[in-house]
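Amino Acid Chain and Its Fold in Token Form
===========================================
Scope: a single protein chain, as residues and as a discrete description of its fold.
Amino acid sequence: labelled as such and written in the usual single-letter residue code.
Position: the record begins directly beneath this header, with no further notes in between.
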Amino acid sequence: MPGNSLRVRHCLTFATGLVECLCFAGAVFGWASLVFVLKTEGYFSSLCVNTTGVNATQVLDCSGQDEQFSLVFTIASFMNNFSSLPNGFLFDRFGTTVARLFGIFLYTVGTVMVAFAVPALSNLLFPALSLLAVGGLLFLITNMQVGNLFGSRRSTIITLYNGAFDSSSALFLVIKLLHESGVSLRASFLFLSACAVIHLFRTFFLLPRDFIPYPLPDHYTYGITCGQSNTPSSEETTANGNAKMMTEDTPLKSDVPVKQEKSFRECFLSRFFLWHLLWLSVMQLRHYLFIGTLNPMLQRLTAGEPSLVSQYINAFAITQMCGVLCAPWNGLIMDRHKGKPRAAGESEQESDLRATVLSLFLTALQCVLFSVCASTPYLPLQYLTFILQVINRSFLYGGNAAFISVAFPSCHFGKLYGMIMALSAVFSLLQYPCFALVKALDGDPLYVNIGLTLLSLLAFIHPLSVYLHCRRVASQRNESVR
């Protein structure tokens, strides 16, 4: 039956996309685990110098090494976000296949570069991690459209994929544990390079050449089907003989009046976009600074005890794996109104927008709580910090993509997603001056953390703005009904 075949394909697309995001896409954010391995291997070790400590004892000062590792992560995280802009335009202009082939190429080159890097060529880490970040992001961007296959659970699927993207940072924990068991860094990254075959299979067989439309037309199909043509046939007609299978080449709106959508410029200059940009930027900066300084922070709190640092790094990486479990809750919060009757005259877009207010508010609240815990120099409390960080990060990126899909026309999703990630990346460059300020304060991040906690309070402006907008629209609608 064509219906059952489509349902199976939808489920396979969803499941394999989840695995792809979970195992590959956001690996760069497991940087703290990889740094531990790289330090063991001696990368940037030439920057460690002998200094005179208290009581005229000789100590090894590796602050220069830590600074280089922080710079690698700063550039990679910047590229992860800033490349969203050209990637979004690439996706909107050329479609899924071209965007994914480009992403697979970048990701594979990045893994090969790490595989063949040696301590004498430590600077190879700069382009390698950046390529991993950009390629992994393209995996996420091209997979988020899978939510369109599951209309009533669209936001849940989008947030689930973003949660899987966060959880994929545990990949570097697996590499760390394998390294401790005797598996070389080169072998691990060559295996990741070989996985390009899996990504190529999904690209051609389980994803469309162009896009998955929303709302989804009846009997819409996509991808290469072994032994069958990708065009409608006599077997693809329904019982009445006049409704054909909808392929991705079939015009979607030939008989439907075209709705006048906002232009990209109008969306970009809207109040929603600007407040959403602030909401994302301040919280993202907080997370990036935390991840980038985690290793030296733990060195400070544990007095440099390697086994204790490794224990907390492992705990942090394990909590990252739970991102895929946390993110769907945000989607469920957004989709909770689906299937319920709407108020008289209320549009679906207005109902969806109203449902985002609670999600935006909870995300901002989580960030403040996470920042307070991260600012407290008490080692056992960092377990709670790790939990709050992964919950907040899952809500943050899933909520970001879901809000853009709700608040703006779908034809601009790739461009707007890319633009907001690129602009937030520029804002995230403030993390490097923050690193320098922490270093100037003898490695004590307390005052910088307090400043970032206060900055995070600005994120509450966005949910308040959306709430006031929804209330104003509802009031106008009620008045017109009277």
In short: The first strand starts at residue 49 and ends at 52. Residues 271-301 form the longest helix (31 residues).
